[in-house]
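User: Is it possible to get a 3D structure for a protein together with its bound compound? The compound here is tryptophan. I've pasted both below.
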Amino acid sequence: MLGEEKILFSGMQSTGNLTLGNYLGALKNWVALAEEYTTFYCVVDEHSITVRQDPAELRRRARSLLTLYIAAGLDPDKNCIFYQSHVSGHAELAWILNCFTYMGELQRMTQFKDKSAKHADNINAGLFTYPVLMAADILLYQADVVPVGKDQQQHLELTRDIAQRFNSIYGDVFTVPEGYYGKSGARIMSLQDPEKKMSKSDENPNASIYLMDDPDTIMRKFKRAVTDCEARVAYRDEQPGVKNLIDIFCACTDRTPDDIVKEFEGKGYGDFKAAVGEAVVDVLRPLQDEYHRLEKEKDYIDGVIKRNAEKAGGYAIKTLRKVQKKVGFPEKVR
Ligand code: TRP
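Assistant: Yes, that's possible. Here is the predicted structure of the complex:
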């Protein structure tokens, strides 16, 4: 029942093409979690402009990501799927929370350090306060649970610290959220460097499977995937390439590593890689079909965007008004 269910919030940036890692590690879990929680799945377009973007491209990708959420199986009548920039409360709460976050805390964020090294010509204040906007996203909806990757754990800890700090001054205003980090097997690594996470910003296109890759491309990328010279399908840390392929296989088929190792005993990597490729093609085909179908349903998607922005806005405004009152902003005269 609505109101009794716990609240879940998560978001993804619409920059770059989503990879199999984003699907198996995040989106697929989101669909599973949708049953249990009242969910908010956001396209965090405001976070994206901390790095310079082409406006038309950003807009196109935001819509594409939102469509993909639905294609992946999130029913937009049950899950609130929306654009961050359509609910002004995110930016408004972020401002207030900025005043409850210390420079030192933000300076310790490893993602800020990495990103400022990568974009040395544009170390803007938004990049610095990025985690505060993320805290605002989460706290605005009084989220209990936030599924994120391990790389976001530090940001989530900061969110909890900010919430607790605010609550200790003003009373119980925010729900202090828990992170949900999923299963370790869902961490998909690069096909070219299995020590690195599969990333949508990888410069080598063979390193990642993109969700819209066609079957031939997928098969070719698996064929070229880096393995080792052990020439045996085993699930162990000493063979990170093969281990990653087994993880992908398992995540696509809901089978166990043991089961897969048994099936490929005495067989070469060629057969094994082809089987992994086929499993991935089978998982992505319905997703791609549904995506291409939805892409053409312009009015339907527009309706989803409008309805869900209103719904999210309704939740957001409640928290925002409460916070504004607590910090001492004058009430509006009606
Ligand atoms: N920073 C997250 C990422 O890059 C995206 C994000 C923004 C997010 N706001 C969020 C994730 C709120 C969870 C909850 O992955």
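The mean pLDDT is 95. Residues 9-13, 44, 47, 134, 137-138, 146, 148, 152 surround tryptophan (CB under 6 Å).
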